[in-house]
């Protein structure tokens, strides 16, 4: 013990290092979790499309560099086959120098395997031994492209889109309503804008340009198509896109109720 204290210094040190305990009934702060029950640090649901796209692009580049996409990759196992081919060519050259004639296939196989067993520690494990069948050169044969002649599952029958004309009429009404809202917004504007405002009409035209094919661009693609670069303009683009989608939901409300 020390002077002025009744407890040993080890007891006081242990009491200071002890974590503070919560009082009974005091609320505990739970860890932040998302709606699906996962913590934010391990929740990849929002980044999953980006992750998959980057992984796919990486492996496509790798396959293209290896020649797997244009038929120039050759045959699997080319490294060991090339090594065995160089050793076999050397054995053929030595046989011709020793016997003064070209070897037959059985003679070449016997001479080459005897030389490999004499000069290699484990010739069979190093894949340098050959047979008469392995003397044949292998070639990469590209597979034929899938078509209706070899793949019957590709045979499809196009059916006419009977609701396309009606959808086009409703989308024309949506664009007309967007023009009206753009005009109302222009008249209610009291200050002169410092930049060109983003119009609902332009956003609607860009969003529904390929609706017949079932393609609807993202906000980034619309921004690139309309030439929108500033952060404020991008925020306005998001607001105008939400307005366009709201008008579209009202125009196709019966579709949603029927489904």
Summarize the structure.
The protein is mostly helical and 259 residues long.
Secondary structure elements and pairings:
Elements: H1 9-17, H2 48-65, H3 78-99, H4 105-119, H5 164-188, H6 200-207, H7 219-226, H8 231-251, H9 253-258
Poorly predicted ranges = 38-42
State the end-to-end CA separation.
Answer: 82 Å
SS-derived structural category: mainly alpha
Radius of gyration: 37 Å
Q: Count of DSSP helices?
A: 9
The biggest beta sheet is recorded as: none
Instruction: Give the overall silhouette.
Output: rod-shaped
List how many beta strands DSSP finds: 0
Secondary-structure element string: HHHHHHHHH
Describe the structure.
The chain has helices at residues 9-17, 48-65, 78-99, 105-119, 164-188, 200-207, 219-226, 231-251, 253-258. The chain is mostly helical and 259 residues long.
Features:
259 residues, mainly alpha, single chain
